[in-house]
Amino acid sequence: MVRIKCSYPKCTTGSLADRKYNKTYGIKNKTLFSVPKDPHRRKQWQNALGRLNALNEKEVVCELHFNTSDIERFYKTILPDGSKVLMEKGRINLANTAIPIPQLTLDADEQSKSLAQNHSQTNAIHDIEAVTDELNTDALQSEITNTAIDNN
Ligand SMILES: [Zn+2]
């Protein structure tokens, strides 16, 4: 299995440590979106990521770097009585016009917030790097009870 990691600067989504962390704490892995195939749109993503070199087709960007309005998480159904029902999608969708939030144009406040977030995430990952996969290989012992069978 090929492991793919988010191409956004400093993001750890999709890294082995991130997957391990999610697995340990039962957190759903974040969705990774492939970069657009369209060269013009791919260039927009490249700019948003502040990258000098072109993005390769196989690169991905995770859901953390998009406006929530660009991400569809639910199926919306309107019932005959007018009430709305939201059903969570197994796989979230990204609007086909979505561009990652540019990392260099975040205002100072948002930037410090995202730095704080990155910081706490990094610490959490450090904590779990010490966790080793311990498999309990002790075979379960089944007890056999001899019972007398009465054939008569
Ligand atoms: Zn990411």
Automatic annotation (TrEMBL):
Cite the entry's keywords alphabetically.
Cell cycle, Coiled coil, DNA-binding, Metal-binding, Nucleus, Transcription, Transcription regulation, Zinc, Zinc-finger
Query: What is the predominant subcellular site recorded for this chain?
Result: nucleus
Which segments of the protein form a coiled coil according to its record? none
Q: Name one GO cellular component term.
A: nucleoplasm
The THAP-type domain covers 1-103
Q: Answer yes or no on keyword Nucleus.
A: yes
Q: Enumerate the SMART domains for this protein.
A: DM3, THAP
InterPro entries noted in UniProt = THAP1/10, THAP_Znf, THAP_Znf_sf
- Entry's localization field: Nucleus, Nucleoplasm
Q: Does the keyword ATP-binding apply?
A: no
* One term of GO molecular function: sequence-specific DNA binding
Q: Which family does it belong to?
A: Belongs to the THAP1 family.
Name the record gives this protein: THAP-type domain-containing protein
